[in-house]
Amino acid sequence: MTTSKSSNWDDLTVRIMSSVAMTIIGAAGIIMGGVWFQMLAVFVTAVMVWELWMMICGDEPTKGMLLAALVASVLSGQIADGTLLGLLLFFVVPVIGVTQLKNERVTFFVFALGIQIAGWGLVHFRMDYGFVWLLWLMLVVIITDVFGYFAGRSFGGPKFWPKISPKKTWSGTIAGWIGAALVGFVFTLFTNAGPWIIVISMVLSFAGQMGDIAESALKRRMGVKDSSTLIPGHGGLFDRFDALLGAALFMLLVATVFNVPGVAF
Fold it and tell me: Per the UniProt record, which residue ranges are transmembrane (predicted)?
């Protein structure tokens, strides 16, 4: 007899194998940096916009692929340019998408714009702050997800936001914050960040969780389980990187508002 407890872990093997593959590819891109990380970021960003389109208008895949190709072109150009005027080009894809949609125009506009800005932000975070701090950002997001997954499956308890994301629990959410704090603490041991990095890590963890919640709300609104079926055990790239989008947008906001200088180490 299969218990509901054991069914909680049915997808663990597939999730781990997919996670290992994504970690290897992502780690290689982050370590090499430069054009390699740029190509990876452009690819992931373009695919996520395609997934967004398919969730909203799945019966017109060709338009989604053309928009994804345009995203890749625009983002590649923006990485090379980077001026404030050039950033206005990020509105091109959302505006074109809006003109082609009959429904959910605001939804597409907001998410398509956010995805592109986050992708651009990650590339510049790697260039301006270097490998160490991009690694920190990624580890906070990953550990938040890992701690949240195991705590939520092990302890369960009250739901964090049942109407939006019925699987997320307060135990998993808080465990994610604790995991992020541990990442921050580890980074105090070999960087000059100081204790503040622990608090920032926890806030970054929450921003990532809100990115996850936002995508969950989108899927619930569209009536789909996953953004696509590209990654076994994880759904689509949007499902896997939604938290990273939230974290990247938060760090971009912090760096812009507080004019944090680049350190690149």
Answer: 20-53, 65-94, 106-125, 131-151, 172-190, 243-264
